[in-house]
Amino acid sequence: SPKAVIDAQSYAGEHSKGTLYQGGVAVPLVISGKGVTRANVRESALVTATDLFATIAHIAGAESASIHDSHSFKALLSSEDASTESFVYTEFESDETTGWSVRSNTHKVIQFEGGQQELYSLVDNFGETENLINSSDAAIQNQLSTLVTFGRNVTGEEPAGAQDITNIILSNGSGNCADYAASYSSNVLDVNNNTIFMGDLMVGLSNNKCQFMTNAIPNHDFNDGGQAFPNHVSEQNDLFEVTQTPMKAAETTALSLTVDNAIMLNGVKVDLLAAGCYNVGNGKVGCNDMNQPWRYDPMHEPNGFRVDSHNAHSQPDGTYHYHGSPLALFSDDGQNTSPVVGFAADGFPIFGSYFDDGSEIRKALPSYQLKAGTRPSGDGNPGGVYDGAYRDDYEYVEGLGDLDECNGMMVNGVYGYYITDNYPYVLGCFTGTPDVSFNKN
User: Fold this and answer.
1) Rounded Cα–Cα distance for residues 375 and 377 (Å)
2) pLDDT of 328 strictly over 90
C-alpha cells in the first residue's frame, strides 16, 4: 500500500509500497468463476503473480502444470488439500531499495543489495519490526539458511561453503536425512549439447523434516546417449520435504503419475513411471490413467525412451530425472556395503545395491520376475512374450529375493529401499506415506 493509506496498525509507515516488506509486496488475490467450488473461504497457501501464467494455461487445458518459475494453483480452486508452493520469491529494484526476499508460511528473509539481511517471524511479528537475523536459536538459524538458499537458487548466487560433489562416491550409511544437511554444488556437462551446468542443492531442516532445495542438475555429466534428449535440460527451482522419522503405513501406497518417487543426494528426483501405454496415442505420451494396462517400462531399451548412461532423461519442462539406477553416487565394485544415495518420498532411505547378508557383501535381489508364457492379444492387448517391455510383464513373488514388494528390507534395524539391476530398480511402491511436497502440480 502507498504510505499515505497503509494500515498503520499492521505495518510501519516505512514498510509501504516500494519496499520489500509485507506492506509493500503482499496484495489480496480474489478468485471467482466457473470451476471455483470453494466459495467464501480464505486460503493461506503461498502463491505469487507469476503463478497466474501457469494457472490460466492449466485451466485452458495445458498438460504441464508448471513452467520455469510459474506453478499452477488450479487445484486450490476446488480442493483445500491441494499441494502448493512452500516459498514465495520477490525482488525489487529502485533508487531507494534494491534486493530480494523469500517467505515461507512462517518466516521471511530480506537480502538487500550489498548483502545486508533481515529475518522476521511472520507468525509472531507480521509487521516485521523484530529482526531475528542475529538470533542464536538453532531453529531460527535453520529457517534463515533454508530461505537464503532458496533465494540464491533463484538468483544464481553461489552458496557460501557449498561442498563440491562433482562425480562423488558417497560413503555415509545413515538413514536419518538430517545427517545430510548442508549445501552442495557441482560442475557438469550436457554432453550432446556441449553446455556447462552448475548443480545446486541445499538440504535444510525444519519442523522434523528435511528440505531438499534443488535446481535438479546432477553431479555428473549427462545427456550422453547416441541421441540427444528430445527436451533440453533446464535448471529448476524445486523443493522436496521428507520426514526425519519415517514409519511403515498400515498399507503400501502404489506408485502413480501424480507423485514423484524420491530425491537423490545429488538433487535429482526419481520418477520411475512412463506416461506411455500400448495402444494409447503414439505410446509415448498421454496415458495418464493408472488403471490403463500395458504401461511401458522406460528402462526396457527397445522401447526407445532415449535415456542417457545414468538411466535418466528430461521431462517436457526440462527437469532431469532418473527412471532407474543413477549408476552414480555409490561404488559398484562390491567391496563395501553401499551408502545411502537418496530418500524416498515417504522418508525411508534409499541405499545403493550392496549389503552384508552375514556371510558376504553382495547385491540385494528383488522379488519380482517375468511372467511365464505370452501376453493376451486383441482388444487392446499387445500379445507377444513377457519380455519386460511393460510393467505388467512382471509379478511379485514373496521370498523370491531379498526385498519386499516395495523393493525394501530391514538391515541392522534400518528399513530402506535398495537399488537393483532389474525391475523395479528403485521402488516398487511406498512402504510409508509420501510427503505432499512430492505431489506433481
Assistant:
1) 6
2) yes
> Taken in order 168, 174, 175, 180, is the CA torsion positive or negative?
negative
Residue by residue, DSSP assigns 331-343 as: --SSSS---EEEE
274 burial type by CB count under 10 A (0-12 exposed, 13-18 middle, 19+ buried): buried
In sequence order, which residues have a C-beta less than 8 Å from that of residue 236 and are 6 or more positions away? Answer: 214, 215, 216, 317, 318, 319
The set of cell numbers assigned to 399 is 521370498
Cα atoms found within 13 Å of the Cα of residue 75, Cβ hemisphere only: 15
Q: Give the model's pLDDT for residue 228.
A: 93
Residue 424: cis peptide before it, omega within 30 degrees of 0: yes
What is the distance between the alpha carbons of residues 288 and 161, in angstroms, rounded to a whole number? 42
> How far is it, in rounded angstroms, from Cα 300 to Cα 329?
22
The segment with the largest mean pLDDT, out of 14-18, 194-198, 232-236, 416-420, is 416-420
Please give the Cα distance from 388 to 300 (Å, whole number): 6
Name the more confident of 309 and 70.
309
Condensed to tens digits (0 to 9), the pLDDT of residues 115-159 reads 889 999 999 998 999 999 988 887 888 788 888 878 887 787 765
Give Cα separations from 340 to 183, 190, 210, 290, 433 (angstroms): 17, 26, 15, 30, 19
Please say whether the beta carbons of 19 and 127 come within 8 A. no
Q: Which candidate, 392, 364, 363, places its Cα nearest to that of 380?
A: 392
Question: Which tens digits make up the pLDDT trace of 274-287?
Answer: 889 999 988 777 78
Least confident of 12-21, 253-262, 339-348, 353-362: 12-21
Taking the CA atoms of the chain, what radius of gyration do you get in angstroms? 23
How many Å apart are CA 84 and CA 46, to the nearest integer? Answer: 7
